[in-house]
């Protein structure tokens, strides 16, 4: 088996480090949420090395289950990139993107705050010792019981976009600090959201007055340009709209002090548009509409940006068919042990399929065939992608590795047809055993308890 070269910078060890203790596997106390699958990398070893080692081990047995490897060091490097590119913006990580306990612990220690969408996500973050002030309850349409939970546990930042939501909040969480979510043009995003959420500009004044009349405080605005935004200029228009709503709110009597620019930031290196381009547009829009010194706190809800490059998924070919199409063209059907009902559920919605890395010795230029990649269930729709991919002819038992699998994968997995979710190994290198001085001061001031949790002290 040859070690195939990944794109440079895909997986590596960050210069920012995280305290994780020194055991190969975390020792879990009763009731603890610490995962048992933390693996310490040896000096010079990478997560890709772990993938190849695991493939070799499984290939020598009859059990060749799919698996994922998460490189926690990537989280630290992504956090550093985000803060350097958007220095005025505080990240509130979108928990729904990847809710692994280790991912959340590392991000909490780095000083990020959290965007939660349900009581379950609120509980998960609060159980880590994160202060309620570092949580945004960002779902504009919430069950009453979840609103009451937020009130009981001191989570005050709540998003709304309708009068009906205001009435619920007034009854069950009158002390909330509300953020009005605006409708935003996002039709060209890969995953648009504005058909479901957001108030148009023409109704914002009425909503702000209704909040005032109900005795509720609106403290700011939010928007979301859609996940996988393809048009960075949409940030410019949305931020300008927010400024108009700030002016409305101030006239009505609200103390407007918080701007939430949402998510939509690309997660993969080399994406189109690139993160740096998006950050440039955002910084220009902020300088024009909310200049430094204006007293406005600016936050964002990055999810994909942090999580996408953290994970790789390795899948095994469990069955194969060769089909002759009209004209004598050969097509291959590969059946894999992970698919649409596992970690690939979101990918049929993407415009182009992702190309896997073939872990096999091949001739320099092997012939390629149109291939359909099926998952393991009995549903014919269980495909990894809607389109065919071009791959060499492979055999039952061969492995494919998909990089950039950290966002909206394990969180969307099911047990349909009795197939278990793909297991995840969390990897961390020796360089990540302690925080650098600058990061330590920031993280300690943000949440000293989070650092103790990561070190295994208390909790």
Automatic annotation (TrEMBL):
Pfam families per UniProt: Orn_Arg_deC_N (PF02784)
BP-aspect Gene Ontology terms: putrescine biosynthetic process from arginine, via ornithine
Keyword Cytoplasm applies: yes
Keywords on record: Cell projection, Cytoplasm, Cytoplasmic vesicle, Golgi apparatus, Membrane, Nucleus, Polyamine biosynthesis, Pyridoxal phosphate, Transport, Ubl conjugation
GO CC entries: axon; cytoplasmic vesicle; dendrite; endoplasmic reticulum-Golgi intermediate compartment; Golgi apparatus; membrane; nucleus; perikaryon
Keyword Metal-binding tagged: no
Residues forming the catalytic site: 378
Record GO terms (molecular function): carboxy-lyase activity; ornithine decarboxylase activator activity
Cofactor(s) it depends on: pyridoxal 5'-phosphate
Gene3D superfamilies reported for this sequence: Alanine racemase (3.20.20.10), Lyase, Ornithine Decarboxylase, Chain A, domain 1 (2.40.37.10)
Domain Orn/DAP/Arg decarboxylase 2 N-terminal intervals: 75-307
Subcellular localization: Cell projection, Axon; Cell projection, Dendrite; Cytoplasm, Perinuclear region; Cytoplasmic granule
Modified residues (N6-(pyridoxal phosphate)lysine): 96
Family, as annotated: Belongs to the Orn/Lys/Arg decarboxylase class-II family. ODC antizyme inhibitor subfamily.
Chain's role: Antizyme inhibitor (AZI) protein that positively regulates ornithine decarboxylase (ODC) activity and polyamine uptake. AZI is an enzymatically inactive ODC homolog that counteracts the negative effect of ODC antizymes (AZs) OAZ1, OAZ2 and OAZ3 on ODC activity by competing with ODC for antizyme-binding. Inhibits antizyme-dependent ODC degradation and releases ODC monomers from their inactive complex with antizymes, leading to formation of the catalytically active ODC homodimer and restoring polyamine production.
PANTHER family (alphabetical): ARGININE/DIAMINOPIMELATE/ORNITHINE DECARBOXYLASE, GENE MODEL 853, (NCBI)
Subunit record text: Monomer. Interacts with OAZ1, OAZ2 and OAZ3; this interaction disrupts the interaction between the antizyme and ODC1. Does not form a heterodimer with ODC1.
Protein name: Antizyme inhibitor 2
């Amino acid at each position: 088996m040859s070690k195939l070269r990944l794109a440079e910078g895909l997986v590596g060890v960050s210069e920012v480090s995280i305290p994780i203790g020194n055991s190969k596997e975390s020792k879990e106390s009763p009731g603890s949420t610490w995962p048992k699958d933390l693996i310490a990398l040896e000096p010079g070893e990478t997560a890709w090395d772990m993938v190849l080692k695991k493939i070799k081990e499984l290939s020598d047995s009859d059990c060749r289950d799919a698996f994922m490897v998460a490189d926690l060091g990537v989280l630290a490097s992504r956090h550093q990139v985000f803060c350097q590119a958007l220095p005025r913006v505080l990240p509130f990580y979108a928990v729904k993107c990847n809710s692994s306990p280790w991912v959340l612990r590392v991000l909490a220690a780095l000083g990020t705050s959290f965007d939660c969408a349900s009581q379950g996500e609120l509980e998960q973050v609060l159980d880590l010792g994160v202060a309620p002030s570092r949580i945004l309850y960002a779902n504009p349409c919430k069950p009453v019981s979840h609103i009451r939970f937020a009130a009981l546990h001191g989570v005050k930042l709540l998003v709304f976009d309708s009068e009906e939501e205001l009435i619920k909040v007034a009854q069950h969480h009158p002390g909330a600090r509300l953020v009005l979510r605006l409708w935003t043009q996002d039709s060209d995003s890969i995953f648009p959201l504005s058909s479901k959420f957001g108030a148009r500009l023409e109704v914002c004044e009425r909503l702000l007055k209704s909040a005032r009349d109900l005795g509720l405080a609106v403290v700011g605005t939010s928007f979301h340009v859609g996940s996988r935004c393809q048009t960075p200029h949409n940030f410019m228009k949305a931020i300008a709209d927010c400024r108009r709503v700030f002016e409305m709110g101030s006239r009505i009597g609200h103390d407007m002090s918080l701007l939430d620019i949402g998510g939509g930031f690309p997660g993969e290196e080399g994406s189109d548009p690139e993160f740096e381009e998006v950050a440039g547009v955002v910084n220009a829009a902020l300088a024009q509409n909310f200049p430094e010194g204006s007293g406005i706190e600016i936050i964002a809800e990055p999810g994909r940006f942090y999580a996408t490059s953290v994970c790789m998924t390795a899948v095994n070919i469990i069955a194969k068919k060769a089909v002759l199409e009209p004209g004598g063209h050969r097509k291959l059907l590969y059946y894999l042990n992970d698919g649409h009902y596992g970690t690939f559920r979101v990918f049929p919605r993407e415009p182009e399929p992702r190309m896997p890395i073939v872990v096999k010795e091949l001739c320099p230029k092997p012939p390629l065939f149109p291939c359909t990649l099926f998952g393991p269930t009995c549903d014919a729709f269980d495909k990894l992608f809607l389109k065919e991919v071009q791959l060499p002819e492979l055999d039952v038992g061969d492995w494919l590795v998909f990089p950039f699998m950290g966002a909206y994968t394990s969180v969307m997995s099911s047990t349909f047809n009795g197939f278990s979710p793909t297991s995840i190994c969390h990897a961390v290198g020796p360089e990540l055993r302690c925080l650098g001085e600058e990061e330590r001061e920031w993280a300690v001031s943000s949440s000293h308890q989070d650092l103790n949790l990561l070190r295994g002290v208390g909790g």
